[in-house]
Amino acid sequence: MATRFVIIGGGPAGNTAATYAARLGAEVTLVERDVIGGAAHLWDCIPSKTMIATGGAMSFTRRLEGMGLEQQMPEVDVEALTERIESIKVRLQRSTTNLLSSQGVELVKGSARLVSPHDVEITTTADDGTTSVRTLRADAILIATGTRPRIPEWCVPDGDRILTTRDCYPPRVFPESVTVVGSGVTGVEFVHMFSSFGAKVTLVVSRQQVLPSKDPEVAAVLEDDFLRRGVQLLKGARAESIERVAREDGSEEVVVRCDDGRVVRSSHAVLAIGSVPNTDDLGLDVAGVEVDRGGYVTINRHCQSNVPHIYAAGDMSGKLPLSSVASMQGRKVAEHVMGLQKVAHRHLDYDKAASAIFTEPEIADVGLAEADAFAVGRKIRVTKVPFSSTPKALINNDWRGFVKIISDPATGVVLGGSIVGRHAAELISVIALAVTANLKVTDIVESLLVHPALSEALAEAAE
Ligand SMILES: Cc1cc2nc3c(=O)[nH]c(=O)nc-3n(C[C@H](O)[C@H](O)[C@H](O)COP(=O)(O)OP(=O)(O)OC[C@H]3O[C@@H](n4cnc5c(N)ncnc54)[C@H](O)[C@@H]3O)c2cc1C
């Protein structure tokens, strides 16, 4: 008899697990309460990158003069941008749904919870408001319910002037000034996005460096770019209240107060201070599934919870909150459920996940970071090449940034790297492949790459 596999959540983790498990012969039901494709994926990742692409096009146009063209100042058409975001979302949603259906996955619209270790209860509300409940028995269950933006107790977002990240795609009006609270990946992407659209931006940075977990050299390039664009950085400050207040002329503004007494006034504020897992009200306690103090399901290397046939994957598993990682976890779960790990399974190594920050310049990294190697006294070889010596960067009229490769001095094996500059998110794939496949720097040097291309900086850094 086929394995009965029930998946809760249709984001990258859930829908990838469903596709692979169905291909491997499981009888799969995928329950999604909202949109197939995933909340974070379709509400955060895709719209934010779509807006950043439009903002990037605007800042590119501002540099046209340097390319022998007359400068033109484009204006944003909020309606057209909103339509563009919607059409991309619909296309992606449709292609994911078609793929799942073509593999024979049963798609159920509804909200699911565990009512026993093997039973999933699904509540569906029809268009006329009537609800129906059905319970599915499962041999294996995957919880892939994602996360939602974290709202602190000192602030009440209103979706109008005090915004969470999900209120920004696009905002009803483009803010004339924005205070972004939180200087992690999401925060800096929002700074980049709003400043590309011409807003006056202030970033509240709780530490002394934006992107506190990143290589200081990488963060420095981004900070320089922000300062050059007129972004105000409030370093060493923690926001402790955000309020809407009336100005004398009857209009309104947002006041952000920080713990060191500094106060910022702007037309809008955006909270980018992380997320919380969607694990409440899932019946995890009924099924005996353990969560950590933050509410994330604790998993082993196969993504199994403490209840072996109940798996967790994606953002709510508390690993790397990346769409790519969620998908790969989903694939590994499918393999494990179907017993494939015994023959052809490679464990997911979170330390080798490539990630990117879609700012300008773009930032991408993978594998071992220089600071982490120093922290544990590991000997490494670090080679760095600025794009200013790369012909294609000069042709592009954009030579900001560098390529840095970290390798083992004894063997030449590539351990990690970072890239700051145009197309960094694409270029990092070469280093990511080298890190995953244990390739040596000579493998990169001896590849016959294209000329002129930004990838030449990679070969030079690998020398
Ligand atoms: C602003 C922002 C930008 C981002 N940009 C990137 C990026 O550029 N690149 C990248 O790799 N990652 C990015 N991410 C992260 C990425 O979006 C997530 O890592 C990814 O979506 C996680 O996938 P998931 O499957 O775990 O969850 P989700 O995509 O959140 O999907 C979970 C699904 O579960 C459903 N669900 C929840 N509870 C229930 C229930 N009880 N019953 C039924 N269904 C339920 C939800 O409706 C949702 O559809 C970004 C995140 C943010 C916040």
UniProtKB/TrEMBL annotation:
Domain Pyridine nucleotide-disulphide oxidoreductase dimerisation: 354-462
Gene3D superfamilies with a match to the protein in the record: 3.30.390.30, FAD/NAD(P)-binding domain
Molecular function per GO: flavin adenine dinucleotide binding; NAD(P)H dehydrogenase (quinone) activity
Cofactor(s), names only, from the UniProt record: FAD
Pfam families, A to Z: Pyr_redox_2 (PF07992), Pyr_redox_dim (PF02852)
Record's keyword annotation contains Flavoprotein: yes
Key words of the record: FAD, Flavoprotein, Oxidoreductase
Listed PROSITE patterns: ALADH_PNT_2
InterPro entries for this protein: Ala_DH/PNT_CS2 (IPR008143), FAD/NAD-bd_sf (IPR036188), FAD/NAD-binding_dom (IPR023753), FAD/NAD-linked_Rdtase_dimer_sf (IPR016156), Pyr_nuc-diS_OxRdtase (IPR001100), Pyr_nucl-diS_OxRdtase_dimer (IPR004099)
FAD/NAD(P)-binding domain location: 4-330
PANTHER family: MERCURIC REDUCTASE, NAD(P)H DEHYDROGENASE (QUINONE)
Family from the record: Belongs to the class-I pyridine nucleotide-disulfide oxidoreductase family.
The protein's name in its UniProt record: Unannotated protein
